Amino acid sequence: MQESSAEAQGGLFDFNGTLPLMALQFLALTIILNLIYYKPLSNVLDERDEYIRNSLTAASAALSRANELTKTYEQDLAESRKKAQDIIKKAQQDAQQVVSIKIKEAQQDADNLISNTYDQLNIEKEQALNNLEQQVDLLSNQIQVKLLSN
């Protein structure tokens, strides 16, 4: 009979003084866990999330700056290459002009040398002809004198 009196009193759920005590223990445990574990863990996770966000922002800014610098340097490099090509082209043109001038001067010097040599040869030819005429005249006179003396 004792068993039936226990069943009659509370049955499966007994609503006596232990239920509010259990509720208070559950609330106290929830508050303690929230203060000791969940808030610090939440703070650490929030700090980590903020650190990651800041790192991503800084990395994005650094990447953007690096891309700008790369673009600027590539433009400067292209301009420098163009200037270098212009300088090389001008130097080649100047060298070609110098070569043309030197060739013209050499051609003119050669023409002057040929002209002077031709003039000198003509003078020598005239002198040689005059000399030959004189010798021919002299020989003719000697022949004439010998023929007349005979």
From TrEMBL:
<comment type="function">
    <text>F(1)F(0) ATP synthase produces ATP from ADP in the presence of a proton or sodium gradient. F-type ATPases consist of two structural domains, F(1) containing the extramembraneous catalytic core and F(0) containing the membrane proton channel, linked together by a central stalk and a peripheral stalk. During catalysis, ATP synthesis in the catalytic domain of F(1) is coupled via a rotary mechanism of the central stalk subunits to proton translocation.</text>
</comment>
<keyword id="KW-0138">CF(0)</keyword>
<dbReference type="Pfam" id="PF00430">
    <property type="entry name" value="ATP-synt_B"/>
</dbReference>
<dbReference type="GO" id="GO:0046933">
    <property type="term" value="F:proton-transporting ATP synthase activity, rotational mechanism"/>
</dbReference>
<protein>
    <submittedName>
        <fullName>ATP synthase CF0 subunit II</fullName>
    </submittedName>
</protein>
<keyword id="KW-0406">Ion transport</keyword>
<keyword id="KW-0813">Transport</keyword>
<comment type="subunit">
    <text>F-type ATPases have 2 components, F(1) - the catalytic core - and F(0) - the membrane proton channel. F(1) has five subunits: alpha(3), beta(3), gamma(1), delta(1), epsilon(1). F(0) has four main subunits: a(1), b(1), b'(1) and c(10-14). The alpha and beta chains form an alternating ring which encloses part of the gamma chain. F(1) is attached to F(0) by a central stalk formed by the gamma and epsilon chains, while a peripheral stalk is formed by the delta, b and b' chains.</text>
</comment>
<keyword id="KW-0812">Transmembrane</keyword>
<comment type="function">
    <text>Component of the F(0) channel, it forms part of the peripheral stalk, linking F(1) to F(0). The b'-subunit is a diverged and duplicated form of b found in plants and photosynthetic bacteria.</text>
</comment>
<keyword id="KW-0175">Coiled coil</keyword>
<keyword id="KW-0472">Membrane</keyword>
<dbReference type="GO" id="GO:0045259">
    <property type="term" value="C:proton-transporting ATP synthase complex"/>
</dbReference>
<dbReference type="GO" id="GO:0005886">
    <property type="term" value="C:plasma membrane"/>
</dbReference>
<dbReference type="InterPro" id="IPR028987">
    <property type="entry name" value="ATP_synth_B-like_membr_sf"/>
</dbReference>
<dbReference type="InterPro" id="IPR050059">
    <property type="entry name" value="ATP_synthase_B_chain"/>
</dbReference>
<comment type="similarity">
    <text>Belongs to the ATPase B chain family.</text>
</comment>
<dbReference type="InterPro" id="IPR034679">
    <property type="entry name" value="ATP_synth_b"/>
</dbReference>
<keyword id="KW-1003">Cell membrane</keyword>
<keyword id="KW-0934">Plastid</keyword>
<dbReference type="GO" id="GO:0046961">
    <property type="term" value="F:proton-transporting ATPase activity, rotational mechanism"/>
</dbReference>
<feature type="transmembrane region" description="Helical">
    <location>
        <begin position="20"/>
        <end position="38"/>
    </location>
</feature>
<keyword id="KW-0066">ATP synthesis</keyword>
<feature type="coiled-coil region">
    <location>
        <begin position="63"/>
        <end position="149"/>
    </location>
</feature>
<keyword id="KW-0375">Hydrogen ion transport</keyword>
<keyword id="KW-1133">Transmembrane helix</keyword>
<dbReference type="InterPro" id="IPR002146">
    <property type="entry name" value="ATP_synth_b/b'su_bac/chlpt"/>
</dbReference>
